[in-house]
Amino acid sequence: MNNYPDKIENEEQLEDLLSRPGSGTIDMFSKLEGDLIFLGVSGKIGQSLARMAKRACDEGGVKKRIIGVSKFADKEAQNKIEKYGIETIRGDLLDTEFTKSLPDIRNVFFLAGMKFGSTSNLAMTWAVNSYLPAIIADHFRKSRIVAFSTGCVYPLVPVESGGSVETDIPEAIGEYAQSCLGRERMFEYGSIRNKTEIVLIRLNYAVEMRYGVLVDIALKVKNNQPVDLAMGSVHEVAEKFGKLFNIKPVFVNKEAKTALLNNSARAFEIFGKPAMPTDQVILWISWWLKEEKDLLGKPTHFEVRDGKY
Question: CA 172, 177, 181: angle at the middle one, nearest 5?
């Protein structure tokens, strides 16, 4: 992506950028066989991802059925997705009868998950993160499945190590991370039993204008709240926001020698490094917050070291 704007003016522009497909994405979708279904489409990244797929298909000159599934508690969110040319199906994926009624689609994106407030509702956390994947893996046994997971299945590692790699043995800290490892094992079991093609995508530290670790750090700096250094690797970012806000950040605790880090070297080898520089995102976020733009109101709890989110 080239010719970055100086700032993101509004959510419409932001969502356009988040869903803009690169040339590699357009090429992939032009060659991909079969239709697509996004399970849990109304979450933080589902709408952008589904819209990107639609735009990639349009720009690649191919027609595919693209479906988004969610409980859609917010009717406005459902209307917005449909406006993009994406078919929607409303229902609760934990309702096995509903899930069994979903059409057989070749390419499945599993985006459903529970994190925030997980310690206060552990039964639901396990149901969404572990039980539901078993249902999905069984119903879509003839499909190809991309299942979104989390780097939280790894332990804290020394900062100088460069982060966890996929050959490391998972050591899930806390029930949230354990339930996410359960998700992975259920999909792994479905893949082995049914010979289903499944890939697990472990995500760390989401970033955009309305949500993510950078937003959380920026808010603390802007509001003169202490930035917890316990997780490590956040001091430099806080200082950058301090300069942009003309505020001296307040820090508490000492930087630990370990942090929750993933090593992205292998992803860089396959896909190349991200086109968007981190400093550009920091600039955008600082302006977004200065202008009091809307946020999703979902803190990442990046400073948590005991797994209790």
Answer: 75
Q: Helix %, strand %, coil % for the chain, to 5? A: 45, 15, 40
Are the CB atoms for 56 and 26 separated by under 8 Å?
Answer: yes
In the beta sheet, which residues pair with residue 227?
A: 251
Short-list 140, 137, 131, 136, CA closest to 180: 131
Find the helix packing angle between 132-139 and 174-194, rounded to 10°.
Answer: 20
Q: Evaluate whether 98 touches 92 at the Cβ level (below 8 Å).
A: yes
Q: How many residues does the chain have?
A: 309
* Tally of CB atoms within 10 A around 151: 18
For the chain, the average pLDDT equals 93
Output the pTM of the full model: 0.93
Contact 154, 171 (CB under 8 A): yes
| Nearest of 73, 177, 68 to residue 115 by alpha carbon | 177
